[in-house]
Amino acid sequence: MRNGLIITAIICTLLGHTNMAVAQQPLFKNYTANDGLISNAIRRIFQDSKGFMWIATWEGLSKYNGYNFKNFNTANGLSQNLVNDIYENKNGQLYIALNSGDIDMLDGNRVMGKAVACTAVVNRFITSPTNQVIALTDREGILELSNGKMVKPAQSFPAQTYADLIWLSDSLFIASDENSLKAFDRHFNLLTQTLVGDNKYHETKLYQDSKKRIWLGTYTGLKLMDGVPGKNRPSAFAPLPAAFAIPELQQGKINAIFEDAAGTIWFGTTDGLVKINTDGSNQLLTVKNGLSSNIVTCLMEDKENNLWVGTAVGISKIVTKGGVRLYPIENGVSSNDNLFLLYPFKKDHFLVSTNKGTKIFNANTGQFSATARDGKAWRGVVPATAPPLFFSSGNLAAFDTLTSSFTSKQELPSLAVSKIAGDKNGNLFLSDMEHLYFSSGNTLVKILNYRISSLLVDQQGDLWAGTWQNGLFRIRYTFTRNNFIILAKQHLLPYQNTRCLFEDAQQNIWVGTRYHGVYRVAKNNGGTLAIAGFNQSDGLTSNFIKAIRQDARGNVWVAFYQGLDKLIAEGTSFRVFNFSKVNNYYASVIGMETDSARSIWLATGEGLAHITDGNMEKFAPLPVYITSINTPDSTYPLNANNIQLGHLQNQLQFEFSSPGFINERQLLYSYRLTGSASAEWSKQGNQHTVSYASLNPGHYIFEVRNLGWNGAWGKPAAFTFTIRPPFWQTWWFITIAFFCGVLFIYQFVKW
User: Fold this and answer.
1) Are residues 573 and 680 in the same domain?
2) How does residue 15 score in pLDDT terms, banded at 50, 70 and 90?
3) What average pLDDT does the segment 211-222 reach?
4) By the 8 A CB rule, do 576 and 619 touch?
5) Which 3 state secondary structure label does DSSP give 75?
6) pTM of the entire structure?
7) How many contiguous H segments (helices) and E segments (strands) does the chain have?
8) How does DSSP classify residue 684?
9) 32, 101, 398, 487: which could form a disulfide with 314 (CB 3.0–4.6 Å)?
């Protein structure tokens, strides 16, 4: 479709960017020529049966194996650089449709030459419900790839150019050309057509979603077909549903349409990526949100449900299972001396401290709105107060959800209050920078002479006070007749710099520290306490803990300054899952909270982050493949096995990878070479290449395996080879030499 390519190229050059401010945005991972991609101008994205990604561009073909790009163009065998589409046969061989009309074959990492004889330019390969492989062409109608040959079935329009085709059933499909929509039966007989003229359907994209709606992406926006066309029943169009009747889908060119596994429908346009959620809400994602370019050319969902977005300036990937959603706030969540406000005052609504005052955040819409102005900068909520009290410098107040204002204000004692907590009787515990006090009415009693970092009144009514550098105190008290009495006081973790406290659903107390990670203080039946610690030696990313919370599944989340770890209960202990590392999510964390569903929310220096956990710690190991086998002078086919090498070919290099793309840099491998001096499995790491030198003659098996995020090792990939000994070490040479020696000695003695 040469004319279409020229038009697309002009659009890619001339169109500017349209930005639209949105509240929620996903995390993008971008890949460009700087990362090794052969070209930034993306045309198609394809995943093969093993799981590796193939990217068709204007300047060649790239294979992405999870750690680098293997590129193909005319310099290493392709007939032309401009790639239209890719098809894989049952043997794992790839057919590469080029805009020159050639179809090349790739087997492994090698260009094998022409796959089939073809004189037509193939624009698309499409597989029917009955596994019939159809090729859409320029001016040659529809071809069929059958038994390794291109054949042209009898058809109504043998010289037509087709842009796209979708099968509506195993006996009906519709196709778009420059001037019309045509409906055919499976024998390519025309049932009906709708003529529009003026190239209105030029490069039209066709898509049928899970609700059987038929969408058309055109140069003039989105169209919805009214029902299914049939014999003598031409195509008609219906009004767009309200969720889709938005300017972003009605004013520009639609290049791609895709519905993901969750039912979200994505539209690739020349003004960005449009997302229509299942609830009808919509969002425009542009370069402002991290997209590589506003000109989206293709969409593809891989086997892990990651969404790959091809653009005019590279690829953007959205990890849908990661479950991190961002809600930016200008200058982030406001905090002062580790005090901040992130409080769920009702379902799906939070009070949030910002540098422009306290805001109400609606999690359903992702929007922020102002509270009624009262001139106060509210610094946090008082734990264990009902109804909840909020404090600022010198004041307490309740929050009226009807008027969105802070009411019933009262003054605090004349202290520079830095931390505050309350009990179920309405008493308060206050700290300044040097002391801890009990406060009730006019009663003010000094309890401790330490700088307090965190306060908690547990479900049993005991006070827990974490100090800046003098450990943790547990205080049992009573207050009757204006008399505060300490019944018992325990000093725990005396040399720890505590930073946060949390009580879980099992009434364990969790203590976050500055230098030694997190401690769990469990209450035994006999009244004793059992303390267990978790730190970097146990797998934590950081020993500096900012906040601790528990989700609805009982997992304990630990926030450090730049991200999150997750503690998963296993037996009597916990397994550490490095959530931020796996999800590639890092932020300047201020604090953490849970909503009414006990879902995790972060307050950060960039805004809010909602952690809708995908339970990736349960993911089993992926298949691992050996992707390259080399000696200094040779490269061996990937399907070769038990190769025989000469004694001088005793240096081998292996490359390997697992086609997992949630976070390629966090996939861990281990390998070994059986038959070598050390046949032990290597230490796990994100290493994809290993070399062996000066191998002795013998029989070897190279094995590599992948570690799943569930902590289990997968099945190893193996390669067998033999290094032959030099001829003077072979049995026949030694035998001949032995008899020659015997004969020589015999002749010498006889002489």
Assistant:
1) no
2) very low
3) 94
4) no
5) helix
6) 0.85
7) 4, 66
8) P
9) 32
